[in-house]
Amino acid sequence: MTETTHTDNASAGGIGIGSDGPGPAGPVAALPTLDIGPYRTGGPGRVAFLAALRAACHGPGFFYLTGHGIPPATAAAMLAVSREFFHLPEDVKLEIENVHSPHFRGYTRLGHEITRDNPDIREQIDVGDERPVRQLGPHDPPYLRLDGPNQWPAALPRMREIVDAYMAELGRLARTLVHAFAESLGLAADQLDPTFAVDPRSHLKLIRYLPAPAGFTADYDQGVGAHKDGGFVTFVLQDDTGGLQDARSPQAGTDVPADGWIDVTPVPGTFVVNIGEMFELATQRYYRATVHRVVSPPAGTERVSAAFFFGPHLSATLAPLPLPEELRRQLPPSEPPDPRNPIFAEHGVNTLKSWLRSHPEVARRYYSDVEAPAGRRAH
Question: What is the CATH number of the domain that holds 239?
Fold first, then answer.
């Protein structure tokens, strides 16, 4: 079966924060579940999978992916070692705090990442591709400073091996899905190869969400605020706690969903996949990058997830794809750009902009010479 639906009646409850505003959470909704197995193996369900993929990306922009070939033990080890790290003493975790890295790698303590001008109630580790630090000249773009090494906890030496294995598996899956995306749009499977053939960029964010600590109001539930992912495609591995929500139809000019927030309930053995803004624009918004958020878990619980982001190299540009006439007739009306979140042609410009906005302490330390988002200097 290439596509099924998952219906959710659970509600994470709570009230949105910042630009979200109050609103209902968790209405009944069906999210598609796509089996990529026939596409990976060339089985008889391949054509049906591509049709289901097109419907999912043109519609909700969020779907569950199964048949992916990632060993269950690999996924379980990723979540287990993440929990093990997060349960280390705070001073041990701070040994790899991201303020020590001009590449925004390492540990971010609770409340120190910002979304929509509000702190997120989560702690996390950011891991990227291991690359040497570039020797840059005065005219090189500042986003090339993002390349560099990761920080690894000395107290948990096996973490690197587990993370490397996981990222290698997800990288292979992502490349397969990129080919499927192209074919689902009626294009050749290798249509996007020039964009991804050299130095595709992988990023892994290991996250622990907690209830709001002392110093926050009791109803503050921003695990991560409402946003769209800025890159190409994201794969989320969830534990069984829940809290991820998407806005199927946000009201114009806001992140408040007209039809309420949709709970993306954990389903064992799946990844949650969503489209980023870079790919949305390349399809002229035929495929959708959907606003989503995570609400904080109930008191006495935690939520652990691993978000894997896959995109092209930093200097890549992705021109509008040559969609078939059948799809061009279905394009949505042109929308004015969001002044809060301009998207630039060069992937690295968007990537650095996002880091500077989300991690102001790192920005002040290493990027004081770079114009920060909204016309503000990083210092």
Answer: 2.60.120.330
